[in-house]
C-alpha cells in the first residue's frame, strides 16, 4: 500500500508540474526565467505544454529504463543511478532546445541566447522529475529497488 502511495504522489506531482506549465496566470517556466519577447513568443506559439511533455517523458522514461529495462545487479549502485540522472538532465534540455530552435526557425525568429538560458531551467526540472519518478516506480524493480537510497 505504501508503494502505491509513492506512485500516486509522483503522478500527482508530475500532473501538477504539467498544469503549472500550461497555466496562463502562473506559469512555472516564466517564474524561473522571463524575457518579455521570448516568453511572449513561447506562449503565443503554445510551446510550454510541449516543453513540459518532453521533460516529463525524458525524466519518467529514464527512470523506467533504469528500473525496468536495465534492472541489473551489476548496475544497482547509487553512482549508476546518478549517471542516469546526468543523462536525463542533459538529454531533456537538448531535445527541448532542438524543439525550440525548430519552432522559432519555422516562424522566422532567432532566440538562441534566450533559448540556451531557458533550457538551463529544464536541467533543473528534468532532474527533479527524475527523482520524483525514481521514488515513484522503484519499488517494483527486482534488482534496483534499493537505489539510490536503501528501503
Brief summary:
By secondary structure, this protein is mainly alpha-helical. Helix content is 75%, strand content 0%. The protein starts with a helix and ends in a 14-residue tail after the last helix.
Number of DSSP strand runs: 0
Averaged pLDDT: 91
End-to-end distance: 15 Å
Structural class: mainly alpha
Profile the largest sheet.
none
Q: What count of helical segments does DSSP give?
A: 6
The H-and-E topology, N to C, reads as HHHHHH
How would you sum up the global shape?
Answer: elongated
Rg computed from alpha carbons, rounded to a whole number of angstroms? 17 Å
Q: Report the sheet-strand fraction.
A: under 5%
Helix content: over 70%
Low-confidence stretches: none
Question: How would the blueprint of this fold be written?
Answer:
Elements: H1 2-22, H2 28-32, H3 36-44, H4 48-70, H5 78-106, H6 112-137
Keywords:
75% helix; 6 helices; elongated
Amino acid at each position: 500500500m505504501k508503494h502505491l502511495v509513492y506512485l500516486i504522489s509522483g503522478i500527482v506531482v508530475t500532473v501538477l508540474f504539467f498544469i503549472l506549465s500550461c497555466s496562463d496566470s502562473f506559469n512555472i517556466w516564466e517564474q524561473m526565467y522571463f524575457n518579455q519577447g521570448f516568453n511572449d513568443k513561447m506562449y503565443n506559439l503554445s510551446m510550454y505544454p510541449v516543453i513540459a511533455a518532453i521533460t516529463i517523458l525524458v525524466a519518467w522514461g529514464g527512470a523506467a529504463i533504469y528500473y525496468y529495462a536495465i534492472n541489473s545487479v551489476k548496475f544497482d549502485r547509487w553512482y549508476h543511478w546518478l549517471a542516469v540522472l546526468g543523462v536525463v538532465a542533459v538529454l531533456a534540455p537538448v531535445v527541448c532546445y532542438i524543439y525550440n530552435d525548430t519552432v522559432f526557425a519555422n516562424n522566422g525568429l532567432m532566440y538562441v541566447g534566450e533559448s540556451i538560458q531557458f533550457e538551463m531551467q529544464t536541467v533543473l526540472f528534468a532532474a527533479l522529475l527524475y527523482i520524483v519518478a525514481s521514488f515513484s516506480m522503484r519499488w517494483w524493480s527486482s534488482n534496483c529497488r534499493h537505489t539510490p537510497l536503501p528501503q
